[in-house]
Design a protein that fits this description.
By secondary structure, the chain is mostly helical. The chain folds into three domains: 326 residues, no CATH class; 72 residues, no CATH class; 68 residues, Serine Threonine Protein Phosphatase 5, Tetratricopeptide repeat (Alpha Horseshoe), CATH 1.25.40. Helices cover 61% and strands 4% of the residues. It has 24 helices and four strands. The protein has a four-stranded mixed β-sheet, with helices on one face. Strand 1, helix 20 and strand 2 form a beta-alpha-beta unit. Helix 2 crosses helix 20, helix 5 packs antiparallel against helix 6 and helix 5 packs parallel to helix 8. The longest helix has 27 residues. The protein is elongated and about 95 Å long. The termini are far apart.
Length: 536
């Protein structure tokens, strides 16, 4: 009970800020899908997002929370933190069962100190990893308790949450053989239900064979790495060293904010070191934990896998169980090691990384997404159907133009007729397309978006940003063949810069292309007069 209280307190201190974050990236794509389908339809192997079939952790999770609480980020983040706590309780209980309480506390604190967890908690879609972890740990619990049916059921939940749970039967078999000292034949019989579930899942999975064969392409924004690099980064991630910790300007503030959680962790470890514990983990436990780590790491080396630190969390369970078992007799050394890893964690999370799933990448995207939502809602509390939204100067990594971007506005405005893209995506509506508004926005540092309004507007001759934005918009409209609007934008800029000969000539050309020949001639004449040298 005391360990549960410590886990809850640590979660509140360490992960409290995630409760204020918006939805991100895949969250919107999943929300868009569950909004359009009933729960039974979501379980059908159709319209698979990113080529993965994960009906429990993704579709069912999002469907249930959105129907219960509406499309608000807070309940999703709360659910993820609760799932994290459940994972930690399940792991600590399993570790205590096989290695004793002192080893379990060391292992649980070490696992909880991994910064990789943050990658699962910063966005609602991280629940896929959390559900898989929880079900996998429950399956091992049930298997060691000789409850084969429950173990098979939990494994099914894990496999329907994420594919990497396929390693659980082998991990469980080794636990029965090396930890519980079962004969090989008896251990195979006990693990047989899990093998059957895994085999059925592998046969019925709609895309698994194509994935393993490399026939499904990786996202164009993802970068794969060589297997040796993935193996090295996986090994370093257990100590929060998957990249050299170089926090940004706010990194030290993040470390200061984490001090209460770090003090709690240190207090738990110090108390654990001071108490008597007669349990001595066997060599079989250490060997099993090491094999658990190696087996769970194997799927990360599969073709086309784009590595993220939180993919190594199931492997981390084996690593930290082995560390806890090895250092149970040396609790002071264990305390120093875990506290050092925990201190590195917040600095790792604030180390800039252009990498999918990295905490800093997700936190940065959350910052810009919040700024976009606030700016857009302030300018347009509602949007008319068929509105098209276009954005310029988009910060790198925000995801504009990717599959998850248009659903952002479908979710915010509850309207699937809205479309979005960058300025260069603008095109004239086809004759059979419904009419609607076209809105243009430009990023304004640090986190706001300014609308570049079409049509009549008071010129701002002293506003260089306004002039540049409308000139750029006119160019984009012209490239799309929308010469009437391009001329309108140039006319506003020309009114603010009446002595600019080049601008007058450009306006004359736009009007000529738009078919306004008479006004085009007038502006060309004006351009010619402005271009004449001034008599001396």
């Amino acid at each position: 009970m005391w360990l549960l209280a410590a886990i809850v307190a640590y979660a509140a201190l360490r992960f409290g800020p995630v409760l204020r974050l918006p939805f991100l990236f895949d969250d919107y794509t999943i929300l868009e899908k569950v909004r359009r389908h009933s729960l039974p339809e979501l379980w059908a192997p159709r319209e698979l997002l990113y080529g993965w079939y994960r009906p429990w952790s993704r579709e069912t999770h999002f469907w249930a929370l959105s129907h219960a609480f509406g499309i608000r980020p807070l309940p999703f983040h709360v659910a993820s933190v609760v799932l994290w706590m459940a994972c930690m309780v399940a792991f600590a209980s399993l570790a205590r069962r096989v290695a004793g309480e002192r080893a379990a506390v060391i292992a649980a604190c070490g696992l909880g100190a991994m910064s990789a967890w943050t990658g699962t908690l910063l966005w609602a879609a991280g629940a896929q990893e959390l559900w898989m972890m929880l079900f996998a740990l429950l399956a091992l619990h049930a298997l060691l308790s000789r409850r084969g049916g429950l173990a098979a059921l939990a494994l099914a939940g894990a496999l329907l949450s994420k594919e990497t749970a396929c390693v659980v039967p082998l991990v469980g078999f080794l636990a029965m053989w090396w930890v519980q000292r079962e004969r090989i034949g008896a251990a195979l019989r006990r693990v047989a239900p899990l093998l059957v579930v895994t085999a059925v899942w592998a046969v019925l999975h709609p895309t698994l064979r194509m994935r393993l064969g490399g026939q499904l392409t990786v996202s164009e924004v993802a970068v794969t790495e060589p297997a040796p690099v993935i193996a090295l980064r996986t090994a370093l991630s257990f100590a929060n060293l998957e990249r050299v910790p170089r926090p940004d300007l706010g990194g030290w503030d993040a470390l200061l904010w984490a001090i209460p959680a770090l003090l709690l962790l240190a207090a738990v470890l110090a108390w654990n070191a001071s108490r008597a514990d007669s349990a001595t983990p066997s060599r079989g436990v250490v060997a099993w934990a090491a094999c658990w780590a190696a087996i769970a790491a194997a799927p990360l080396l599969a073709p086309g896998i784009v590595w993220a630190s939180y993919y190594a969390l199931l492997t981390g369970c084996g690593v930290w169980l082995a560390v806890g078992a090895l250092l149970a007799a040396r609790p002071r050394i264990a305390t120093g090691l875990v506290v050092a890893v925990a201190v590195i964690g917040p600095m790792q999370e604030r180390t800039p990384a252009w990498e999918w799933g990295a905490p800093s990448f997700l936190a940065r995207a959350a910052y810009f997404t919040q700024g976009l939502e606030h700016s857009l809602r302030a300018a347009h509390p509602t949007l008319a159907p068929q509105t098209r939204l276009y954005f310029a100067d988009v910060p790198q990594g925000l995801g504009v133009g990717q599959a998850w971007f248009a659903p952002v506005f479908h979710v915010w405005y509850r309207d699937t007729t809205l479309t979005a893209g960058v300025w260069s995506d603008y095109h004239l509506r086809a004759a059979d397309e419904p009419a609607g508004d076209d809105l243009f926005f430009q990023f304004t540092p640090p986190d706001a978006w300014t609308e570049v309004r079409l049509g009549a507007e008071t010129p701002r001759p002293n506003d260089a940003e306004w002039l540049d934005a409308h000139r750029r918009l006119a160019v984009q409209l012209g490239l799309a063949g929308d010469w009437a609007r391009a001329a309108g934008e140039l006319e506003k800029v020309a009114a603010a810069r009446p002595g600019d000969a080049e601008l007058a000539a450009n306006l004359a050309y736009a009007m000529q292309q738009a078919g306004d020949v008479q006004r085009a001639r007038a502006w060309q004449a004006r351009a010619d007069s402005l271009a004449q040298p001034i008599p001396r």
